[in-house]
Design goal:
- By secondary structure, the chain is mostly helical.
- The chain folds into 2 domains: 89 residues, Serine Threonine Protein Phosphatase 5, Tetratricopeptide repeat, CATH 1.25.40.10; 85 residues.
Length: 182
């Protein structure tokens, strides 16, 4: 795995506490996450987070990625209560360090909202999803899949809340785009 070699090289040349090493570990963890190797992904995310926490605070926005990744692992493992603080911290870092309306903020809002839906915290989830939807509505077409994901979770939320009018509304938005996402 090329990302593993890159991480090892950065550790040797820059040191095991350098933020570029943390970045490499986050990237490596993403590879494990995408291939379903969740325990390995979690381990690398945790090391990456620890390095970022020891680093200068100006780098902390980058820590949002492994925080969100670890939250995603915990969600996939069925532990949304443990995932929530990581996802919340990732969103907070992004909101504090990126301009309002940035697509990365919208994605973090959607991810946290997904977790909150699973925890039956519908009001907060709805607020986050509507904010994310607004971000994606104001961006050009390359964010269509992120917009669709926010809509999909709004449909899930309104289905759970038995609000058929809103289910119908958001379903019609997906249908008008010609496809829905899984």
């Amino acid at each position: 795995m090329l990302s593993r070699k890159s991480a090892q090289m950065r550790a040797r040349t820059l040191g095991a506490d350098h933020i570029l090493y943390a970045y490499s570990l986050d990237y490596l963890a993403d590879g494990f996450y995408l291939t379903g190797q969740l325990d390995s992904a979690a381990a690398y995310y945790r090391v990456s987070i620890a390095i970022y926490r020891r680093a200068d605070s100006s780098t902390w926005v980058y820590m949002a990625s492994p925080l969100k990744g670890l939250g995603g692992v915990l969600m996939k493992q069925g532990n949304c209560a443990a995932a929530e603080p990581y996802m919340r911290e990732a969103l907070t870092l992004r909101e504090a360090n990126l301009p309002p309306g940035n697509y990365v903020i919208g994605r973090a809002q959607t991810t946290l909202a997904t977790c909150l839906i699973k925890l039956n915290r519908f009001a907060e989830a709805e607020k986050l999803l509507l904010l994310a939807f607004e971000i994606f509505e104001n961006l050009e077409g390359q964010y269509k899949s992120s917009r669709q994901k926010a809509i999909k979770h709004l449909i899930e939320l309104y289905t759970l809340r038995a609000n058929q009018d809103k289910v119908d509304y958001y379903s019609s938005l997906l249908n008008s785009e010609g496809r829905s996402i899984e």
